[in-house]
């Protein structure tokens, strides 16, 4: 009898989940969040708050080093976790991380990271600040800048970076022109700024943000970044286009997070406009395309999959977290655009069940892999997989009463539309003139960027 019990206990280390039981879902989320946070050491003495391992010198192709943006995204997932479950265990580390990484200029461009800052990197920390605003996450103590003002400072900083000298507009991936990858105008940077503007419009009701969001969306829509296939009706949101040739071509990679970012931004705009037909059409088109591309029929049509790299086992450190963001913003969309809930909810539920089934690996027998369509662990573990599983499982606890707050509906974080106005926008102000060593570093980065964007992923032929 003793032996039998022991045997059962061992088996039970995999994550058990009955998706219809709130207690089960909360307990699964709690276990997954705990395991995710075992990697985080930023709150230990001598460590840097807000960084995951390798965060001062990351390379997404180097397992075990996590880039700065992903840490920012992770803290957002912990704010969502608190909202869904009421568990405050990670609130303090989250607050500390945001306040450390906001940097001296209070705009999520800290000196340690600013040399290689991307518009997308900054956007992900700003999303986390917006998660805090929209959930009335406890405000920072004393006279520290409000969560909302940090996001506004990012918005203000990025305003100057819109570049009409090539491609008729758009943001470059990199903030600084000396950096490798500056030539690319990519979906996640433009989409990231778009979603940030949409959320600021939704939260503050200020139409300047909405006008800007419309402008960024329209530019993307008319550029090679977004292409509509007239035969299938699928909207392709490609990874990037190259300003060196005036954005006349694109790289044929599609990622869940780009669809999530655009979907979320469009959903906030739909709600902000009190239900405009234009934004409803955009939401539905992105959503339909998301279903066609990332919920393959071969897995039943309801299980999210990272099309380009998942089954090949080729997703890099960044890419392993992408499904977290699509899951999160699908859940938000179901609330902000109520007509979408009927198709979103079953897809999140099936994906959550599938994700739990993947959480049966690693050293403790319950770490999560990526392949949600099978209960056989795929052999991978990472902060990204934990975050994706956490977000999709948590999303099944999404309820009307935790819909994103706006100031009109009780969000209390203080607005400062001029936040960060005086922050330097020129890298030489932070670091001194560009040196030969910087240039050599940039050349190495260029090579890295090519590997990074292309990686082992599958080029989509349409
Ligand atoms: C760091 O945060 C974790 C929660 O993720 C907590 O368990 C741990 O005690 C904290 N460590 C320190 C030194 O504060
Ligand atoms: C920047 O890096 C230094 C050296 O590692 C560290 O002490 C400091 O806390 C870091 N600052 C931020 C904002 O990450
Ligand atoms: C570059 O592209 C923009 C937008 O498509 C276009 O308006 C502009 O004329 C192009 N410039 C050149 C030099 O081809
Ligand atoms: C609205 O936002 C714009 C753009 O940031 C800002 O210039 C303006 O002051 C804001 N208006 C109010 C009333 O906050
Ligand atoms: C949406 O409706 C509210 C309440 O009627 C109104 O105050 C607000 O101006 C409307 N928003 C837009 C963008 O039309
Ligand atoms: C999205 O798909 C639904 C169901 O197939 C269809 O009714 C609707 O017209 C589609 N909308 C768009 C904008 O593609
Ligand atoms: C906006 O979102 C709220 C909260 O989920 C929802 O109650 C409301 O119906 C949405 N507005 C529109 C126009 O759909």
UniProtKB/TrEMBL annotation:
Region (Disordered): 407-435
Family: Belongs to the glycosyl hydrolase 76 family.
Reactions the enzyme catalyzes: Random hydrolysis of (1->6)-alpha-D-mannosidic linkages in unbranched (1->6)-mannans
Swiss-Prot/TrEMBL keywords: Glycoprotein, Glycosidase, Hydrolase, Membrane, Signal, Transmembrane, Transmembrane helix
Transmembrane segments annotated in the record for this chain: 440-461
Biased composition (Polar residues): 409-425
Enzyme Commission code: 3.2.1.101
Signal peptide start-end: 1-16
Enzyme class (EC, first level): hydrolase
Highest taxon above the source species: Eukaryota
Protein name in UniProt: Mannan endo-1,6-alpha-mannosidase
Keyword Transmembrane helix listed: yes
